[in-house]
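Protocol step 4 of 5: obtain the predicted structure for the target chain.
Materials: sequence only (see below). No template structures provided, no constraints applied. The aim of this step is simply to have a reference model before the mutagenesis design in step 5. Sequence pasted as it appears in the construct record:
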Amino acid sequence: MKIANKKVTAERLVRDALEKAKHFSDYNIFTFLNEEGALKKAREIDEKIKRGEKVGKLAGVPYALKDNFLSPEGETTASAHILEGFKSPIMATSVKKLEDEGAIMIGRTNLDAFAHGSSTENSYFGPTLNAYDRERVAGGSSGGSAVAVALDIVEFATGTDTGGSIRQPASFNGVYGLKPTYGCISRYGVVAMASSTDCIGFFTKTPEDMDLLMSVASGRDPKDMTTLPDYYNAGDGLTDAACPSDTLQAAQAKSSRSTEHAASVKPSRIGIVKDFDNESVDKEIRLALKNKIDLLKSKGYEIVELEMPALKYALAAYYIIVPAEVASNLSRYDGVRYGFRSEKTKDLDSLYIDTRSEGFMPENKRRIMIGNFVLSSGFYDAYFLKAAKARTLIIKEYEKAFSKCDFILTPVSPNPAFKLGEKVNDPVSMYLEDVMSVSLNLAGVPGLAIPAGKTKNGLPVGLQLIGPRRSDKSLIEFSKVLNDNNEGGKN
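Step 4 output (structure tokens):
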């Protein structure tokens, strides 16, 4: 990652990034460009460097901010009409940590409104185009961030992952995308989708950059009580006691109070989920998986076939639990406190009804209705309670799997990037794109999307490495084993 110095100024890096952003404006990547603010900060960093003052680890590095992170620069809209015009008075903890180290936000990136979607077609501002094929989707919900990195506009971008929203667009655009362990990075100041599965992560072109960003952003935050102690930088790499293993986890536990990090513990057994290698998965994705398996075997790793039958419940459980939390989190948008307010309003009831009817996208409304239905009297036990029990089974399934292997390697999505408009009117087909990604969010385990080559048509193919809770650093380190050809990024 470029760091500003006396040879390459921060201002030059920012100007280059802004020029690229304008050059690729027809990809619809950004909802806002922070030209004035970014250049001002760049000049301040250059002055510090000239004076010989200390600057941060990310000094002068341009980055893109997914437009559901609160920050005073520009409007935080979450690509939703109902938040149009909202200027945040606060800054998200993760953003503050990045900018305290000198990172410079050049713009806000497009997403599915409120992060509801797998294609960035549900955005109020229109879809973002795939970095490799302008007729195809960028993936979602963090499509704008993935494309900003893939087109080399910025060095990194932020994302959120509630069921695959970092990993899937990373896969579709040939870059790295990390969904960390739940609670690794603070969610304070990020527009909530589903509070029990939302995770903050990044898009990068290399594992090394991902490691640097995680070292900056992770850690306890008193403003988010779900955050974990800073295990990422602690030097012990402990996994949860609830996930024992006689391989990597046992070695980590033995060194739990030493200065040696878990990244130095060499994994030896990699799991492959048998249920994910079937005819419903695109043959070129299956070939990419086979090629990586062969690479691991050639390097001496043992491949362990896993049966994880509880994962078949993951998608159904996810689309009960998450809409229930979505319905709760979106209830705050009523046209009273902030954002869009309908002009039709005649009384309080019509204020709520008209504002929400006009302000929400169809997918937002769909999830609100599903959520309210599964939480309603007479249906809670039949749907939400059963889904919660299925979630417990999925958590235990991963614990069992990690007693047999160190990491798991699977596809991210059953297909490469699909064409714009192909699935937007078929919600079930769109939801099925998440079949391989949602179980990680339900279990709280980390997953790293890695570039794994391209199809015959030149579309990127991504795979995901999955690890036990708190194994994020080891996961990033191990991904280098699968990156012999430096496949990240388009340019």
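Step 4 remarks: The chain has a mean pLDDT of 91. Residues 207 and 479 are 7 Å apart (CA to CA).
Proceed to step 5.
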